[in-house]
Amino acid sequence: MTTITFDHTATGYTLAQARCLAHAAALAYKDEREIQTTATGWGFDRVKSFRVPHAAPFPLEDTQAYVAASDQMIIVAFRGTQPEELRDWLSDANTLLTPYTAADGNIHAGFYRALDVVHPALLRTLEGWHTSGQSLWFTGHSLGGALAMLAAARTHFEDPTLLADGVYTYGQPRTCCPRLAAAYDQVFRGRTFRFVNNNDIVAQLPPAPLFHHVAEERYFDTHGTLHEKMPPVTGLLDRLGGAAADPLAPGTDGIRDHFINAYLARFDAAQQKAASPAAGRKPKAGGGPAAAVTGLLPK
User: What CA–CA distance (Å, rounded) separates 190 from 293?
Assistant: First the structure.
């Protein structure tokens, strides 16, 4: 059984914190009752879920998120969506950029609308609960990662007292133009950690150079080793190795690597390896062809 223990006093990057926030991102896929029960078990005495419908042509009918707070720590987590749907939508020629009102630059129009419907209620909750100088964290997987990154920026731009201590995203797509990404990095560099699992297809979309990623990437290679920096040639060879890892399911590696379960398995293995430095290399998470069609949620 997976044990998750949040350090409510944490303020900086650690592997343990990244793993906990990955599980917090996975929890955003659950229903309101399970979110309440699980977050309470993690030591958060205030939990509020948000589910707001929107009319945008989007692979979700609504935007879902939750806020969990203790006297020392607040987490904002956004739900993602099915990778097949998101991949198709992000590849659409109609994907557009729109001016971002909170800062200078352009943002993915769909992400902007998806955040816009829920942000006012989130901001009111944060301003009401951030009363004792708690640390503040944003997290999400897939689409939820994009919304977490953008919500952290918009929250700070609208209320400078609410600067995130950490923004941790998993399989996040590109969100904005290079100019806005640079402006974001000026404020959030050293606070944002964007995790990518090998060939995760969603992390490669929408296409550059029109869309741009924010710093800082953390990369899981095909063997599950976590890298702070991966040289381009080495990264290319590793991605080719990952694509060939399952000859029985060719072409599915990019989807398989995107599942939240694959990220959770990576972090669990990395933590075990950190606790036992002599342990051998772990096999590629995600398994055989059956893994390509399993759901997003951890069991």
Answer: 35
**Residues 152 and 176 sit within 8 Å (Cβ to Cβ):** no
Length of the chain: 299
Q: Which helix (H) or strand (E) holds 200?
A: none
124 Cβ contact list (under 8 Å, min separation 6)? none
The alpha carbon of residue 172 and the mean position of all alpha carbons in its chain are separated, in whole angstroms, by: 5
Rounded Cα gap, residues 231 and 139, in angstroms: 26
Q: Could you report the per-residue pLDDT of 61-78, keeping only the tens digit for each?
A: 789 999 999 999 999 999
Q: Report pTM.
A: 0.87
Q: Could you tell me the two tokens for 189?
A: 């560099």
| Cα 245 to Cα 190, 217, 252, 258, 265, distances in angstroms | 33, 23, 10, 15, 17
Measure the CA–CA gap between 20 and 4, rounded to whole angstroms. 6
The enclosing H or E element of 80 equals none
